[in-house]
TrEMBL record:
It comes from the Bacteria. PANTHER family: ACYL-COENZYME A THIOESTERASE MBLAC2, METALLO-BETA-LACTAMASE DOMAIN-CONTAINING. This is MBL fold metallo-hydrolase. InterPro entries: Metallo-B-lactamas, NDM-1-like, RibonucZ/Hydroxyglut_hydro. Residues 26-183 form the Metallo-beta-lactamase domain. Coiled coil: none annotated.
Length: 247
């Protein structure tokens, strides 16, 4: 991974790629600066927070903003959209928030910088997308990967499919790529591969518990690769997806 520089509170990860961590939620926001236009990745949790983000964007560049990509639907990534007046929100077609919805892939050229937005399949949510800054070898991956905490399995997660989505993310990234998680600092591709393995191990254990006829309570009493209290939704969702009665 390249050495990160800091400019006006933004961490520079490549010639066009920046990231910045914000409270609350320790959400990590992306900014891509092309010769013609900017692209913002996620918008924070409220209009006021989005306005603060917009002011921070303007400390780096006054170029037009091509769009705000929402990596997924959760509030800490989308509710600042309204602060970006007249700017299209871009994201997976399942998101209510977006003006430009994609089903699998979308791309835009910011002048000297091609950006690809790819839906790798259901994972943290049904509508996750990855934003790849092609010339910089930087990928913003939202909550498909977490650095400052463990992977977050919510009641809208797809624990059995998440690992396959991360296979696609790994495939999109060069060995030396920089990967920006939805929460925390940038990581390298090895980190993504390790987190993918943990997620695959969780999925395999859910399948084994279901096949053994374990109740969710008994399944969660086992030893897991992550703290079991974080896996209640994962096991419940996995059982639902396997068609096993959630008892
Ligand atoms: Zn999040």
């Amino acid at each position: 991974m390249s050495i990160a520089l800091t400019s006006h509170g933004w961490t520079q990860l490549g010639p066009h790629s920046y990231a910045r961590r914000y409270e609350p939620y320790d959400v990590t926001i992306g900014l891509i600066v092309g010769s013609d236009a900017l692209l913002v990745v996620d918008s924070r949790a409220s209009v006021a927070e989005g306005e603060e983000l917009l002011a921070d964007v303007r400390t780096l560049s006054d170029k037009p903003i091509r769009g705000v990509v929402n990596t997924h639907r959760h509030v800490d990534h989308t509710q600042g959209n309204a602060a970006f007046k007249g700017v299209d929100a871009i994201g997976h077609e399942t998101l209510d928030e977006v003006a430009i919805g994609l089903s699998s892939a979308w791309s835009t050229d910011l002048g000297d910088c091609l950006v690809e937005v790819v839906h790798p399949g259901a994972a943290h949510t049904a509508g996750d997308v990855v934003v790849k800054v092609v010339p910089d070898r930087v990928a913003y991956v939202g909550d498909l990967v977490e650095e400052s905490g463990p992977p977050a399995y919510g009641d809208d997660s797809y624990p059995l499919e998440w690992g396959a989505a991360l296979d696609l993310v790994v495939g999109l990234c060069e060995p030396e790529a920089t990967v920006v998680p939805g929460h925390g600092d940038a990581v390298d591709r090895d980190f993504v591969q390790e987190q993918r393995q943990t997620i695959l191990d969780v999925a395999n254990q859910i399948r084994a518990a279901a096949a053994a006829g374990m109740t969710i309570e008994d399944a969660l009493a086992q030893k897991w690769p992550l703290e079991p209290s974080l896996l209640e939704h994962a096991v419940r969702r996995g059982y639902e997806q396997l068609g096993v009665p959630a008892t």
